[in-house]
Amino acid sequence: MIVGTVWTPKGPSPITDGALRDNGMVTAVAVHPNDSNIFYIGTAGGGVWKTGNAGATWRPLFDRQLSLAIGEPMSVAIDPNDADILYVGTSGRGRVSPQRQVGLFKSIDGGATWVLLGSGYPAGNTGNVSRFANELINAIIVDPADSRTIYLASSTGVWRSTDAGQNWTVGTNSAGDARSLVLDRT
User: Fold this and answer.
1) 82 with 69: CB under 8 angstroms?
2) Domain coverage including residue 134
3) Spatial distance between the Cα atoms of 111 and 51, rounded to a whole number of angstroms
4) How far, in Å, CA of 96 to CA of 140, rounded?
5) 10 Å Cβ neighbour count for 180?
6) pTM over 0.85
7) Least confident of 12-16, 26-30, 111-115, 159-163
8) 132: CATH
9) Residue 89 domain flag
10) Which segments within 37-171 are labelled E, that is strand?
11) Does any domain span residue 92?
């Protein structure tokens, strides 16, 4: 007998597929830095969802994007200094979904609209960030001391951007599949 906390599903309404009722696989969770009732989840094939009432109701935010497969374990990140700025990394091709990965997305309006970084749209949205188009993005952290500094773990290592995600450099001795990140603030 297991004694402990009783779990209750809080994800978006179950998806009915024939006889199956399935909420899908949650691959990432990001909690608003100032309001714990607001959080975002990334899913293996259903994009990004947002709740403003601690999970009672959900709204899909990512339905019109090129990929709906969000990387695991932490490819949804909120800027701790401006919670309207979000970053989402795509994944797929076997690890979490059969969908292809297309890169790194950014929203500056709390997820209402999204831009694929490095896509050339809007004007000036350039840089080497498009290099992540064929990689699995596993984790993203926005530095709380400087929101222009972002760290990213991908299938090719740990990367750092100092211009809010447009250009990236790989970390020293950081080749290979990086699955997670922790920011040491000491």
Assistant:
1) no
2) 22-170
3) 11
4) 17
5) 12
6) yes
7) 12-16
8) 2.130.10.10
9) yes
10) 39-43, 48-51, 59-60, 76-78, 86-89, 104-107, 115-116, 137-142, 150-154, 157-161, 169-170
11) yes
